[in-house]
Every structure is written in C-alpha cells, then in structure tokens.
Design a protein that fits this description.
Helix 3 links the parallel strand 3 and strand 4. The protein is built from 11 helices and 12 strands. The N and C termini lie far apart (44 Å). The protein is of the alpha/beta class. It has a 12-stranded mixed sheet with strand order 7-8-9-6-5-4-3-2-1-10-11-12. Bound molecules: iron/sulfur cluster. The site of iron/sulfur cluster has 12 residues, from helix 10.
Length: 341
C-alpha cells in the first residue's frame, strides 16, 4: 500500500506555499533610497553578526523541508546576496534538492562579472538584476553609492554569457526621482530579450519615508510607454506571479508591472521569506516573524520543523497590500534589506 502523503498546506485564503525567498545577508554595497537609505543604514549601522547568520547547511536543510510542503521556486536575495562569500557553494547545495524546480537570485549586478560562471556551474537557473535608470546621474542618485550604469550592464552581460538568461530587470519607480527614466529604460531594453519590470515604490520597512504621492502608478507607467510603444496584455506564466505581463505590439519583447500599491496581488500570494538569521515571514510587509533558528540549533527534528512550518502557513491570513492605508504605512514593518524583496 503506497504511503499516503499529507495534503500540501494551504493558508486561510486557500493559497499554497510555492515560492521561498531567502535573504542570505542584510548587508549591501548599495544604499538605494527606497530600501536602505544611507541616513538610516550609515557607517554605524549594526548588521547581523556572522554567528547569527544561518549556515549554508542550515539553509539547505530548511529548503529540503519547505519542498515537502510545496515549495518549488527558491530565490536568493539580501541585502545584496553576492556580498556574502561562497554563494556558489550554497547554490550547489540547493540545486541538489529534489523539488527545487526554479533556483534564482536577485542582485544589483555589480558583482556578477566575478561570480556569474561559478553560479551557473553550481546550478543557478537565472538571475534578476535591479537597475533603476539608464543614465548615470539618476542611477547614482537612486543607489546613493556612486555606482555608474556601466557596472550593472557589465554584470548583465556576464550573466548572459554564463547562461543565466533570459535576464529580468527590476526598476523601482519613485516620483520626483526617476520616473523620467521610464521611457529611456523601455527604449534601451526593448528588442534585447531582457524583460524589464517596473515596480511601484512601496512602503516596505519603516525607514524609507514612504509617501503615497511619491508613487508613480502602474497606469501612469503604462500610459507613458504605450504612448510611444503600444502594448498588449499577456497571460501570467505561473499562478501567484507578481508581475503583470505586457508585450510590445510590434513584437519587440515584453515588460512587466509590479503594482503592489495600485493593483494589489495578495489574492494568490504563495510566497514565504526567510531572513538571514532564520526568521520566517509570511508577508513582505510583516511586523513580526517566526524564529526557526532556535529550533534548528535547539535539536528540533525535520518532522518537528515541518509541522511547525505547516502550522505557520495554515494560520496565515496576510493581505497587506489590500488593506494598506496611511496608518498601516507607519507600522514597524520588517526592512526589505533584511528579508529581501
Ligand atoms: S502584501 Fe504580503 S500577502 Fe500581499 S502579495 Fe505582498 S507579500 Fe503577499
């Protein structure tokens, strides 16, 4: 008699657990104004000490357990994941786990020339690169680390040469900072096979001083682009996909819109996030997490951990973007640089 596998967990809104985002470090070599403003993350900022970070072995053990609960897609994030040493070693551990069907990494791209081949050889499938403008003045203002566009373009080329494409690009659009770069970015990347996604500026964490009037909405972004390049909506690739997809009517490829503010997508959100120090969050805008590291280091069995995760997910009712308000925007939400986007 074949062993009956327990039903995969669903949360209180019937959403499965499919996508695990793992922050491997809270450190970054950029200071993007919408994520890690330098005024808050300055030279005296206390980052997580190494001893508090999950080891690669602990991360791999957790991922194996998550796959038994339905996780198929694993995304490595940060901070900037490539500032943590030996990431290809972690990738090779995760690539060997049955159930991990899609293994990706989000990066600001500047360390890709050094690491792209090793990441690919270790089993990474693809990368998503953040780029908030294609002119140096605007980009430097957004990353607040003096980094020129050319460094990121070199990273994109290295990733493509290593076989980590097709490359997805993320551009966060903040009014008064880079909305003027939306059309130039579309012009630069259409017809290249790279998929540019525009992200509405979000009230993540509690440090970026978010204001609703600094959000350039999906409608505005689409209107700006389609005035020059007509667009057609496309069907989502997977359930729970965050980006709305559009193709250029003239066949020059596709773009994406990630509109957490004006077009919430909590309805089929199947994402969990694990911080670098082993806290589990069931929403990007959560104010508290679940401590898995103490269990991991306290002798919990895989069965115990699996039962704990199942309980957390089945009790989940997150839908922050649907209830966002001026009041919720001020909640002490977890920092994006700590749990990854
Ligand atoms: S706000 Fe939370 S529940 Fe909604 S889509 Fe984002 S992570 Fe998911």
């Amino acid at each position: 008699m074949p062993e009956l596998l327990p039903m995969l967990p669903r949360d209180t809104r019937g959403r499965p657990l499919r996508d695990l985002r793992i922050s491997v470090t809270d450190r970054c070599n950029f200071r993007c104004v919408y994520c890690m403003p330098r005024a808050v993350f300055g030279p005296d900022h206390a980052f997580l000490p190494r001893a508090e970070l999950l080891t690669f072995g602990e991360i791999a053990r957790m991922v194996a357990i998550f796959t038994r609960l339905g996780v198929e897609k694993v995304r490595l994030t940060g901070g900037e994941p490539l500032v943590r040493r030996e990431i290809p070693t972690l990738v090779s551990l995760l690539a060997g786990i049955r159930g991990v069907q899609d293994l990706t990494l989000t990066t600001n791209g500047v360390l890709l020339p050094e690491h792209a081949s090793a990441l690919r050889e270790a089993g990474l499938h693809r990368v998503t690169v953040s780029l908030d403008a294609d002119d140096d003045a605007t980009f430097r203002r957004m990353n607040d680390a003096g980094v020129p566009v050319s460094r990121v373009l070199a990273g994109i080329e290295a990733a493509e040469a290593a076989g980590l494409g097709p490359i997805k690009l993320n551009m966060v659009v903040k009014r008064g900072w880079n909305e003027h770069a939306v059309l130039p970015m579309a012009r630069r990347f259409r017809g290249t096979g790279r998929i540019l996604r525009f992200i509405e500026y979000m009230d993540v964490g509690h440090s970026n001083g978010w204001r609703l009037d600094e959000v350039t909405s999906a409608d505005e972004i689409l209107a700006t682009i389609s005035a020059e390049f007509p667009l057609e909506p496309m069907a989502p690739t997977n359930p729970g996909e965050v980006a709305e997809r559009y193709r250029y009517a003239d066949g020059a490829g596709e773009i994406g819109i990630i509109a957490s503010v004006s077009r919430p997508f909590c309805g089929d959100c199947n994402r969990a996030r694990l911080s670098a120090d082993g806290q589990l969050y069931t929403c990007l805008f959560a104010t508290s997490g679940h401590d898995l590291r103490t269990l991991l280091r306290g002798g919990a069995s895989d069965g115990d951990l699996e039962a704990t995760l199942r309980g957390i997910w089945e009790a989940r009712d997150d839908r922050y973007s649907e209830i966002r308000s001026a009041e919720t925007a001020t909640l002490p939400k977890v920092e994006m640089s700590y749990i990854g986007g």
